Amino acid sequence: MKNFDLSVWKMQEPRDKNPGYQFQEFFVHNIISLGLGQEEKLPSQRVLARLNGVSLKTIQRVYSTLTVTGWIKTVPGSGTFVARESEWQKQNLPSKGFATQLPLSLPELPNARSAELAVPQNFITIGIDTLSPAFCPLTSLVRSMKYYQNKYKTATQIQHVTDLLGLEFREAIRNYFQDMYAFRLNPGTLDFSFDRAATLKRILALLLVEGDEMINTAPQDPALAQVIEELGICQQDLNSSDPDFMARLEAMLKTSSIRVLYIRPQCSYPEGSNLSAEDCTRVLELAKTYHFYIIEEDEYHEFWYEEQPFKPLARYDHEGHVIYMAVLSQLSVYMRNTMVVCACKEFIDLLRSGPKKSYIFRDLIEEKAIVEMLKSGEIWRHAKIARGVKTEEQVRLIFTLTGILGNFSEIRPSSSGLSLWLVFPESVNLMEEMQFLGGHNIGVPFDPGAKVPDAPCHYMRLGFGTFNEDEVIGPARLLRGRFET
After folding, report:
1. Percent of the chain topping pLDDT 70
2. Taking the domains of the chain in order of start, what are their residue ranges?
3. Which of 59, 115, 287, 318 has the fewest other C-beta atoms within 10 Å?
4. 59/65 Cα distance (integer angstroms)
5. What is the pLDDT of residue 104?
């Protein structure tokens, strides 16, 4: 450790009742400001606790979080060390290495392009529509993960292979969906995978062959469009939020040989609308009459803003026509990337018969921690808290936007999900308005994973997965002043 007085590790600021976050920020600030580089030794947990007059458990939790986030590492018997490079180390790297540009041009690949959207995108996406990391049950996850990490020190190869089969994980998810969402899932009717696009591709490839037809209610979804193009599937577009949705669907079925209907009835992409119970029943009747499958994708089953949650098609008497696909939970990145597929056993067996390459991306320690949280109901409790917060935030967001921009736009709340809609007059070009805000030194939080429309648009999809009311008021007032003139 560098020669400096231990007093620099005593926090002088007043502390909250729960000082954990303050200590985390203080600790990271010290690592940066003192120029500590990799392998620099840090004070022990007991020294820090005694120096700051807090419990050892508080400092242990801080060290656990900083370890998980990659700031520090602990070497048994030696102590705790900085795990990240200092700015000095970064600036003094050898000048020769990887250059900015390739020295030779690459050959042009025949299929090296993204699929064009079947319907040109007519909206911009501002903000994030996935849940803020602030809601991640990190304390519970870390505590469980540390326990199972120690258990794995004496694990055998056969135990490792058994865990990779995912039997315990799969069963915990099945029980969770049965208990919390009233799904009727017999053994063998649920599987899990990773990566949404890969899962969609596998499902569609089992149901369709090149040239088959499907109806797509999310034609502006780039990932889905890419999969459909790669498989050579013919698609017809249909908006499930249109008032004449049912009539148009039935007309398509009468004139075309449709094999699959892709739908998000509880959060139609990107409108965020629900189908009525009557429409759900009618869609299933049509599936049985015209012999097609329904792929029902559900990202936001934890987030609804009506008195009761939406009842997905998978909970109706669908006689095997529905293949339900959902994220496990929005609470953490790993759970959000865990795709749950519910279908009849014969289809699940086909789904599982393919090559299993995803095991190399599995985090078995985190999976075991998630299993414990699924069994105890802790994930449900955390999701319920997050839903309560997001319900209040959506109300505040709508109230604020209506008060400032209500004369210049229509604000459409969502019945589920983590985004709402602003519809401006057709004369408004929102990309120009965002450039106007940028010219006034206002950072516009474009969703980094969303496509930017090629043509002028007047629809805005506003995500509130992370919510900051002050971030809304200033830009909204600037836009109002611009519209008023």
Report:
1. 86
2. 11-85, 123-132+382-484, 155-376
3. 115
4. 10
5. 64
Q: What CATH topology corresponds to 11-85?
A: Arc Repressor Mutant, subunit A (1.10.10)
CATH number assigned to the domain covering 155-376: 3.40.640.10
The fourth-level CATH superfamily of domain 123-132+382-484 is Aspartate Aminotransferase, domain 1 (3.90.1150.10)
Mean pLDDT of all residues belonging to the chain? 85
Residues 36, 42: Cα–Cα separation, whole Å = 9
Over range 22-43, report the average pLDDT: 78
Degrees (nearest 5) of the Cα angle 112, 297, 396?
Answer: 105
Whole-Å CA distances, 387 to 271, 391, 415: 20, 6, 12
Tokens of 404: 């400032």
For residue 22, give Cα distances in angstroms to 7, 16, 52, 111, 177: 17, 8, 12, 51, 37
Predicted confidence at residue 286, as pLDDT, reads 95
How much is the CA Rg of the chain, to the nearest whole Å? Answer: 26
pLDDT tens readout for residues 230-251: 999 999 998 888 888 899 999 9
Q: How far apart are CA 239 and CA 314, in angstroms?
A: 20
C-alpha–C-alpha distance, residues 471 and 165, integer Å:
46
pTM equals 0.75
Tell me: the pLDDT tens digits for 419-431?
999 999 999 999 9
Residue whose entry in the numeric block shows the structure tokens 């009835």: 265
Per DSSP, helices labelled H in 182-276 are: 196-207, 222-231, 245-255
CA dihedral (54, 55, 58, 62) in degrees, to 10, reads 70
Which among 317, 372, 351, 360 has a CA at the least distance from the CA of 173? Answer: 372
* Phi-psi domain of 262 (left: phi exceeds 0; alpha: psi -120 through 50; beta: other): beta
123-132+382-484 matches 11-85 in CATH topology: no
pLDDT greater than 80 at residue 103: no
The residue whose two tokens read 């319920």 is 384
Nearest-CA neighbor of 325 among 350, 343, 337?
343
- Assign 3 a pLDDT band (cuts: 50, 70, 90): very low
Task: For the chain, give percent helix, strand, coil, nearest 5.
Answer: 45, 15, 40
Q: In the predicted model, what is the mean pLDDT of residues 259-273?
A: 73
